[in-house]
Structures are given as structure tokens and as C-alpha cells.
Write a structure and sequence with these properties.
This protein has 101 residues and is mainly alpha-helical. The chain is built from four helices and no strands. The relative contact order is 0.07. This is Unspecific monooxygenase.
Length: 101
């Protein structure tokens, strides 16, 4: 974009590149030290997904694995604060319920 007031778009792209680099290093480490005994989510994804399994998809295996791991990690960390914020907001907007609680 030709106009990025405040630099938010530039900062967002920089942060995404950093996060993508972290996930790529994590993925590369798992590829180098694969074990059939102590498997975590990344190892299972590497076992299940291969180029043949996603041949009809427009993305490569690394992109799918990194996106899935990021989604699970972000989803697990944001859920609780969001629910608590909504609960407090609903209680404050409904004082009669707040008195019962």
C-alpha cells in the first residue's frame, strides 16, 4: 500500500516474518530430531502430511503445518481472557444478574 499511516502495516509484516521464522526453525528442528517414541503435535503433523496428501492444495506442507500450529497456539492462549472479558462486561451491563452472583 502506498499509505501506511502510523506504520502499523509495516510493523505487522515485520512481526509476521519473525513469527514465521520461529515456526520454521521449530519445524526444521523436528525434522532433524524425529523420534517415534516421544512425539508431539508437530511430529504427528509431519507424519500425517506429505506432498502426496496435499497435492490438490495450493500450499506446501510447511505452510499448512505452521498455520495449524499457530492457530492452535493462538486459539488456546486468547480464549480464556476473551471469555472473562465478556463475562465481566455482561455482568456489568446486567446489574440485576450481578446482584444474584
Amino acid at each position: 500500500r502506498w499509505l501506511d499511516i502510523g506504520g502499523q502495516e509495516k510493523a505487522m509484516k515485520r512481526n509476521f516474518r519473525k513469527l514465521d521464522g520461529i515456526l520454521q526453525r521449530w519445524l526444521d528442528e523436528h525434522r532433524q530430531t524425529r523420534s517415534k517414541h516421544d512425539q508431539d503435535f508437530m511430529d504427528v503433523m509431519l507424519d500425517v502430511l506429505d506432498d502426496e496428501a496435499i497435492k490438490d492444495c495450493n500450499y506446501d506442507v510447511d505452510t499448512i503445518i505452521k498455520a495449524t500450529c499457530l492457530t492452535i497456539t493462538a486459539g488456546g492462549s486468547d480464549t480464556t481472557p476473551i471469555i472473562l472479558t465478556w463475562a465481566i462486561s455482561l455482568l456489568l451491563n446486567n446489574p440485576h444478574i450481578l446482584k444474584r452472583a
